[in-house]
Amino acid sequence: MIKALVIDDELYAREELIDLLHDTGEVDVIGSCNNAIEGLKKINTLKPDVIFLDIQMPQITGIEMLSMLDPDTMPKVVFVTAYDEYALKAFEDNAFDYLLKPVETCRLAKTIKRLKKECQEQDYSPLVSEMLELIPCSGHNRILLLAAADIETAYSDLTGVHIVTKDTKATTQLTLKVLEEKTPLIRCHRQYLIHPQAIREIKLLENGLAEITTQYGYQIPVSRRYLKELKDRFGLN
Amino acid sequence: MAMELIFSLLQQLSVYLVIAYLLSKTPLFMPITTVSGRLSQRFSCYILFTLFCILGTYFGLHIEDAIANTRAIGAVMGGLLGGPLVGFAVGLTGGMHRYSMGGFTDVACAISTTVEGLIGGLMHSYFVRRGQSDQIFKPFTVFTVTLVAEIVQMFIILMVAEPFDKALHLVSAIALPMVIANSVGAGLFMSIIQDRKTIYEKYSAAFSSRALKIAQRSVGIMSQGFNEESTKEIAKIVYEETGVGAVAITDREKILAFIGIGDDHHLPGTPISSGYTRRAIDGCELVYADGYDIPYCCSLHQKCRLGSALVIPLVGGNNEVLGTIKLYEPKRKLFSTVNLTLGEGIAKLLSNQILTGRYAQQQALLTQAELRLLQAQVNPHFLFNALNTINAVVRRDPDKARQLIQHLSQFFRRNLKQNIETVTLEEELQHINAYLEIELARFSDRLNVDICVSPELLNIKLPTFTLQPLVENAIKHGTSSLLENGKITLQGYCNKGCIVLEVEDNAGNYAPIGEESGLGMKIVDKRLKNMFGRQYGLTMSYQANEWTRATITIPADAQQPIHTNGTNGETAV
Question: What's the pTM value of the predicted model, to 2 decimals?
C-alpha cells in the first residue's frame, strides 16, 4: 500500500480525492489537511510516500511549499490543480505527475501505476526557488509568516526547530538544513544557525569553542568545527 | 496762373490729407474701413465726411468772389462709403455751409456739392448691387468718380451762376486745378483708408492665426480629463502663444496648473485664495483686474511681480462653472488688447474641450463597464471551481449537489440578464445569494457570511453589478487567503439621509493600488457616481490583518415608494 497525504484547501475536493484514492485499493490515505503549513507538519510526522498537493491554497501555495521541503526526506509529489496554466506548463516541461480537477478515475489509476513503478528520485529543482522570503511558523494558536531577513537565529531541540527574531520565538516545520540552504542563516553549531548580520560579538572560549552574542542579546554556542568557518568568513584567521 | 493755382490747391490738399492721416489713427476711423451698411457706420461717415467737406471749403482759395476748393472729396467719399443717403446728406450739409459764405456761385456750389455727394452714393449702390464692394476702396475708382463729379460741378456752375460771362471766366480758371486736385486728393484719401484697412486685417489675421494655433496645439489634451497633467499642458501652450506674464488654470477649488512669473509661490494643488477668482466662479462672470482702475494684488505673496489679472470662467453644460483660466501680466506690462479678446476665446475653447473630454471618458467608461460585464458573464475560474465543487459533492450528498446546480444556473441566468442598467437591491441580493451558495460550498469549512439589510431598502435601485463584485472581491482577495474562519458581512442601513451598503471581510488584505480588482472597484465607483452624483460612490477602508470594508453611499431618494408585501430582508446565509 502507498501511504498518501492529501493537501487541499477545499473540503469537498479533499473528500472526493480521498474517496477516489480509497477506491483504487492501492493507496492508504494516512491523513489530510487544508493548508500548506498544516501539510508541512503532517509530512514531518506521518512521513507519507506521496503527497497529493493542491496548488491554489491560502498563504502558501503548493509550489511554494515544495521549496520548504527537505530534499532528503521529501515524499513524491502529485500536483492537483484546476486551471493554473503557468503551473501546468512547468509540469509538462519537467514530466511531473499532475492531476486535473475534477479527477478522472482512469487518469488516477495511471498515476498510481507510475507511483508504484518509479523508484528513482524526481528532481523538483525547476519548481523550487533558491531562497525563501517567508518562513511559516506556528506560534501560540496562530500561524506566522516570518521574513527570513528578520531571523536572528534558528536552533533545533527535541521538540522541533525554533526560530528567533527580535521579538518572536516560534516553531517551524522546516529543517535546519533547508533553512541553511534557503535563507541567509549560516551554521555555527550542529544545532544552531545564525544570521551573520545579527552577530554583535563572538567570545572565544577554551577548547576552541566560542559564544556569539546577538544584536538583541541572545547567546548562541559555536562549536569547534564551525568556529573555523566562521572565522574564515569574517577573515579573522 | 493755372499752374500756380494747381500748386496752391495741392498745398492746401496736403494739409487736408495730413489731417485725414492723423484721424485715421483714431478709433473714429474704424467704422468707415468696411461697408457694413449699419446705422453706426453710416452715421460715422456722415459726421466725418461732412467735417472734411467743410474743411475743404475753409482751405479753399478765394478767386474772383468764388472759392477754389477741395470740398468735393468729402462729398464724393461720403457717398461712396456711406451710400446715396449719406452722400446726399453730406453734400447738402457741405453745400449749405458753402452757401452761407456767399459769393456769386453760392447757389451753384450748394447744388453741385449735393449732386457730387449723390453721385458718390449712386456709385456705392452700383458697386454693392454688383457685389463688387471691394471696388469702392480702390483709389483709382475714387479718382475717376471724383473726376466725373468735378466735371459735373463745373457744368452746374456754368448753368446756374449769374452772370454767365463771369461764370465762364471763373470755370476756365479753376476747372483744371480743381478737377486735378480733388480727384488726386480723393484717391490719396482712399489710399490712406486702404492702408488702415490692411493694417487692421493683418492684425486680425495675426489674432486668428494665434487663436488657431492654440486650438490646434491643444486638441485632444483634455481627453485625458480635466486634471493637473492636462491643464499643465494647456497652460504651457497658452503661455507660449500669448506671451503673457503667467497663465493659471483652476478648477472650482484649487489651482490645477500655473506657469510663468510667480510660479514659485502659485503652486498647483493649493486652494484658490484670490477673491477675483472666487467671484468669477461664483458669479460665472469674467473678471478683469487691470491693476489701474481695479487694483490687483497677489493674495499669496507680497513681493509677487504680477500686476494685473484676467480671470475667465470655464463654463460647462447647464452653465455650471468648471473652473477658470487666468492670464496675468507683470506690473511693468499692460495687457494687450489681443490677449484680452483672445482670453475669452481660449476659455470657450477650453470649456468645450473639457466637455468633449468628459464625453470621451464616459464613452471609455461605458466600454470598460461592458467589458467587465462580459468578463463576469464568462468567468471561467468561477465556473470551473463551481463544477469541481459540485463534482466533489455529488457522491456524498446528491441532494446538496442538485441544489448547487440550481444556484449555479440561477447565477448564470441572472448574469445573462445583466445588460439592463439598473436592478433593485432585492434582485442584487438574490444574485449574491446564488453566488455565495457556490462559494460557501467551496470554502465550507472556513467561510461564514452574514447578510443584514433593512427590509425597507429592498426596493432601492442600483446599477447592475454593484454589490456582487464587492462580495466576490472580499472572497477572492480577502477571506480566501485566510487559513480558517473567514467571515464576510453585508449590511444595508440608513444613515444621515444616505443609504449605506457595506461589505466587510476579516482579512484586511486590501492593497490600495494595483491588480485587476482595482479596476473592478473603480468601475463600480464610477457607475455609482454617474447615476447618483459625485458626492456618492464607493470608498474602501481597511485595517491591515483585521478587516477590509467596501462602503457604498447613495442618496436616500434612490428608494422607491413601492412596497412589496412584507418581504423579510434579513437574510442569514
Answer: 0.54
